Structures are given as structure tokens and as C-alpha cells.
Amino acid sequence: MSKALQDALRALGKRGVDTFPAQVVSVDKNAGTCTVNDGVLDYTDVRLSAGIEAGAKRYFIFPKVGSWVLVSPIQEDLHNLYVEAVSEVESIELKIEGVELGINPDGFLLKKENETLKTLMVDLLEAIKRMKFTTNMGPTIKLINEAEFTAIENRFKTFLKDN
Fold it and tell me: Which branch of life, at top level (predicted)?
């Protein structure tokens, strides 16, 4: 293949609008968008996902305000931008129907409909601390290692979140 033909094919494949770095100015978690600045212009309503669907299915990586992102156009349209990569993550959110997974500096959220893993773990540990057993001498009156279960319960409370 000749050099001229190679250059012509390369030019055909070259996009008119390239990916560019920009700094995050603000984030709208409800809309799944952010505002970024490339050093000259502010770009508003930049998608945090290439395809934002209405409804319960969504996945977002929310960048920290002030961090840098790579922004790309969809079909070379500067009015239709999305974040392709982030340098610093503030939080992650995944929702599929009634199931939700969230990660942020406060901890982890695992939720199905109205039930969270944190609530389940706390309820389980509280039930364990209330346990009574019948022995040959009658029912037990106190859990000997209740403090150990309370310590585990507190660890779960700081590790997991409710919302």
C-alpha cells in the first residue's frame, strides 16, 4: 500500500473533535452529569456515563470536584460529551432494579429493595446478644461474651452504611 493511500485512510479515521483533559468544577449526582473546565471554557451537562438511561439501571463513577478527567464527544458533538476517565474518584454507584451498591469514604452500601447489609448484620448481632439457652440448671441469664459481639457490631456499623 502506498504512503499516500495510508495517509488518506488515516485521515478518514481521524476524529474532528478529540478527547481532552478538563478539571471538574461541579458534580450533579442526581442527573449523572458534571461541569468541567478545559482551562478556557466551562462545559456543562457532561455525562458521567456514555449512556444515561431513565429508570433504575445506572452505573456512575463520580469524580472529585477539582480533579482531572478525560472528556470525549459522542459522535464528534461538543454538545454531547461524556467523561471517559477520572483521576480521583469521590464515589461509585451501581443500581440495577431494586439492588444498589455504593462505595464512598464513609463505607460500603449493599442494598436490596429496603434491606441493607448493615441493618441485617446489626439485627443479627443484637439477636445473638439476646440469646438464652436452657441448661440442666435452668435458663441462662447473661451472655458471657456480650462485649465481644458489641465490638463486632460497632465494627460493622463503621464499615457499612445504610444509605
Answer: Bacteria
Kindly write down the DSSP assignment for every residue of 99-125, as one continuous string: EEEEEETTEEEEEETTEEHHHHHHHHH
Helices (H) and strands (E) in the chain, counts: 3, 12
- Phi, psi for 117 (deg, rounded to 5): -60, -35
pLDDT, one tens digit per residue, over 54-84 is 555 678 999 999 999 999 998 888 888 999 9
Question: Which residue from 108, 113, 111 is spatially nearest to 160, judged by alpha carbons?
Answer: 108
Q: How much is the pTM?
A: 0.73
Residue spans of beta strands (DSSP E) within the chain: 20-28, 33-37, 42-47, 58-63, 68-74, 77-86, 89-96, 99-104, 107-112, 115-116, 134-135, 138-139
Residues 53 and 122 in one domain: no
Q: Which of 16, 17, 59, 52 is nearest to 38 (CA)?
A: 17
